[in-house]
Write a structure and sequence with these properties.
single chain, 202 residues, alpha/beta, Rossmann fold, Arc Repressor Mutant, subunit A, 2 domains, 6-stranded parallel sheet, 9 helices, elongated
Length: 202
């Protein structure tokens, strides 16, 4: 018999939060469910409940920007299992999210049983991604993704190199890799392609 769990669901949409609660209760009927509708309340609940078993976190939770919230919570709670849920199935997506050290990524379009199996696997200590998208994303390292983010901000190679603490030559290689992986001809097209495919978000 599984030990009782305490799970925080941080999701701003009431209907989806209710659905997540019911989904979780089906696999953990004795679980204590804690809820939050924005990043501030989620942070409060994390302080109030240091014994949480799992955090289910909406990537677009109000009160935080882009992936900053995920990065902040992972840094503050390095041992807490965190699963990110997202309606943006193509991304900031699997590669960007998992690179931050979370335990799982589950698309909101995933089937109920897939979500439940994913949550069970995460609590067994596995790293899990559950999506409904079968298009192959380019394989980028965390450094490539950082470079791509800076490209979207219009930074020059020299500025990117300074921000990342690497040489201009290395940045040029990263940019070349990104262009090749995305099958485009220049950095402007690379940014457009990355946004269109959801590898980065505005």
């Amino acid at each position: 018999m599984m030990a009782s769990k305490k799970i925080l669901i941080a999701e701003d949409h009431d209907l989806y939060r209710d659905g997540l609660r019911h989904l979780v209760m089906e696999i953990f009927p004795d679980a204590k469910i804690v809820e939050a509708s924005d990043f501030y309340r989620a942070s409060e609940q994390l302080v109030l409940h240091p014994d949480l078993s799992l955090l289910i976190l909406d990537i677009q939770l109000p009160g935080t920007q882009r992936l900053d919230g995920v990065k902040q919570l992972r840094g503050a709670y390095p041992l807490l299992p965190i699963v990110v849920v997202s309606a943006l199935e193509m991304g900031p997506n699997v590669q960007n999210v998992m690179a931050l050290g979370v335990n799982g990524f589950i698309a909101k379009s995933a089937k109920k049983h897939e979500m439940q199996e994913g949550l069970l696997a995460i609590l067994r200590g596995e790293l899990v991604t559950v999506t409904q998208c079968h298009d192959q994303l380019p394989s980028f390292s965390p450094r490539h993704l950082e470079t791509l983010e800076y490209l979207t901000q219009g930074l020059s190679n020299k500025e990117i190199a300074r921000n990342l603490g690497i040489s201009d030559i290395t940045v040029r290689q990263y940019v070349s890799d990104i262009i090749d992986h995305l099958g485009v001809e220049n950095r402007t097209q690379a940014v457009m392609a990355a946004k269109k495919r959801g590898i980065i978000i505005d």
